[in-house]
## 1
Amino acid sequence: MEGTLRLYSSPSYDVYGLSGNPFKELASEGIEDIESIHVYQEVDMKLSMVVSEVVGSRSSVAFSIVGPLGMGKTQRLKSVAKAIEERGGKAIYVKVDTSDILKVTRDIFNAFKPPKSRTNIFLENLTKKLGFIDRLEKMLSSVGEYKSRDIAEMLSAELGKHKYSALLLDELENMAGAEEKEKILFFEMLRHFISNMPSGSIFAFASVPEAYEEYARQFPAFFMRLHYEFKLRPMSFDEVLELVKKRLNRVRVKDTDDPIYPFTEKAIRLIHELGGGNPRQILRLLHYVLSEAAKHKFDPIDDYVVTTILEEPKSLEEYLTRIPKDFRPLVEVIIEKFNGGPVSYIQIAKDVKMSGMQAYEKLEELIRLGFLVGDPRGNYKVPDYVRKFLEEGK
């Protein structure tokens, strides 16, 4: 089967009157003017009300945003940051990419540093007058020196210099791997910060449900300080229709009476069901289906076309054949050494002798194409139908 050519020949979307595939960007970070294609849900209105409450009454609010990967947590946090910055406030957004509490705390305080200059007068004066940098560096020199209360008070004092402020921590689930003592220190710092937030300030964090529930059991005192808990729900069919219309409109170069063309409503309903209402999974499916349909000039793209394109392989050999040659070694390692996963991209990178970033990018592409799936901890594994092949082969 000519899997590589079929998947990686460059499709032309002219047949549909489109300049390109509008479903390629899965994350909000890669899209300019994200608001124009965002599909608003009830949670967006609630977040807007929280910001208005903080701005209008100069109060302080702490909340969480909880949902599986791909549900729009990052986009919501960044919308809060933008709202604060548009009002002249200070917004600190930190993607928690490690379980090292010293690094995460340093990332937070780095947001206060001005652009470096030759003289760096600001930092010199700050050190001389307040000893701020010296104190902070000492507390971040080791876990043993980490003083949760002192760090929280320093953070509150710095944010308090601004009329409005926000501290936003994304992907807090990545802190789950920290040592118990370190997690206690970090969450105690956050608890004390919430208890002493300056006026006109917002604290928010985002997490997947599994880690959120674990943290709630471990740190009840911290969770008692939260004012709101926003749980993201799957997209409804009508919301997916709106998503498709908005995305297609961005690349449409020929007028059409049907805003979802070349898709039919039944096709979108099927994709909605297959994606389980998860925005990222739905976008992956839409991207793949449109790309494949354009190569074969299927017109329109109905539920039969979707079923044909997404039909599962009948054997492990057929599955591997469909995978592009340059990507196949990564999948073979997952199957042969890790029994189908889940496994981290770092472990895979070592086995295929590839840099971590290269492996990560290729693995994300394989997820986008439907050959792998991710789990809440950011690991990679084969789809369930491939796991059945592995079990049958034992």
## 2
Amino acid sequence: MSGILAGKRILVTGVLTDSSIAFHVARLAQEEGAEVVLTGFGRLSLVERIAKRLPKPAPVIELDVTDQAHLDGLADKVREHTGDDGHLDGVVHSIAFGPQGVFNFLEAAWDDVSTAVHVSAYSLKSLTTACLPLMPRGGSVVGLTFDATVAWPKYDWMGVAKAALESTSRYLARDLGERNVRCNLVSAGPIKSIAAKSIPGFEDLATVWDTRAPLSWDLTDPEPAARGVVGLLSDWFPKTTGEIVHVDGGLHAIGA
């Protein structure tokens, strides 16, 4: 099969509904020739049902990125679905969570903040190192962020967690370059998804794109961001690592 991911094996986390960026990453990756394995947490039956909407069947592995036993067993679980050598060429980190308390910056408790940082940032390191045994020939790790260079209305400690994610990606790029493993992020504009619904005032935040983004932005279209991820998974960026590619209609470049 032809395509920019022809012959590659990609692990995709974070598929929950077909409105998620991760779902469209998995779909496009398959269309570009990749073999895809999904992970899910908590609602595995829902992930398995959504997986059936992909162009080809994709196995689903249970993964809680805060559970060390799950991380320790991940490589073996992947091998169960990918044959004897079980290698991976790419890993997609599309994982973020914060308790409701993190959306009040001045009142947030450390327990809530630490959960957000663990799930949303530290997990990039945890997931990547868990997959390293499957990447002896190198590969590409791509995560999803929401521009953490500025303070957003409503986003509060999740913005801090994304800043930690972006820094984590740079340190992974530093330490894994000698293994030919690239680590990059796509900074996506807002998308109406399950995750977005958990952010109080998301609609107010998202309206910024209506007036400031140079390119029109569709809150219901995850494909542009997914295309960015697939591009970074491919061999078309062989010497790009520690980078953040903005797929946000250009808003990040515009002042007030």
## 3
Amino acid sequence: MTQDMLFQGWGGLVRTLIVGTLAYVGLVTFLRISGKRTLAKLNAFDLVVTVALGSTLATILLSKSVALAEGFTAFALLIGLQYLVAKGSVLWPGFAKTMRSEPRLLMHRGQILHAALRHERVTEEELLSVIRTNTGAALGDIASVVLESDGSFSVIPKPGEGDVAQFADADLPDRG
């Protein structure tokens, strides 16, 4: 092993400390200004922005070829685009439909919807694992399973006496 692999000098460490602190403060400031919606992983686009922000922060910290001002510009661009997509989704339903997927029922009234599983590329074994992981309940005790637009699963138990089941506004595919 060469010394360069383990330690390249104090200058790099000092740069990382200074630029890292400033980049962190800048990112937190951008996020506070842009609001909670920026990091709410409500759909795939939101998740991509969150991951991209983290990747940008890492690049600013570790790449000497990326100036702090360029990193701040990248933060502003990502957050600005996310804002425009979210705003456009609120204003134009057609745009919203293009940008996000709808929740989909994978199991309804205790019946596995095999066509929905195929469409969403989820195996029956994965569905059963989700049920076990989320509730530990028997298959017969589950009313529905919804694959949400952010990729998470909602497992809805059968209502007890007097309970009212809350179902997501999800596509109900053919039972095929």
## 4
Amino acid sequence: MKIRIKGNSVRFRLTQTEVKAVCDMDMVREETQFNEAHFVYAVKASNVHDHLTASFADQVITLFVPKDTLNDWYTNDQVGFYHTEILDNGQKLDLILEKDFVCLDDRAEDESDNYPNPRGNEIADS
């Protein structure tokens, strides 16, 4: 799972295995260790929320996804889910949850569990 935070925007990208895990087991979690603390982020299915909602509690960022939207996400072509949350202070927080696709550029990271890039065929056919 990758997380990208920029200003008031948080994007989670999940591999095929992670999408299957959140669909089947209702949660996927990742942790980055530092000497002083651990940075933890998770995606969790929710029966309470009707759109993407995020929380930051106990040093964990959790993105809640309505459980019914995850029913067949692992097997369908839907790329992701998007929502802009209005915070208590009136600011907006953009929330994004997407399948992680293989990059079209050569990268040094392992992308063997990423989804095939739908634009890959367009590039190859050009």
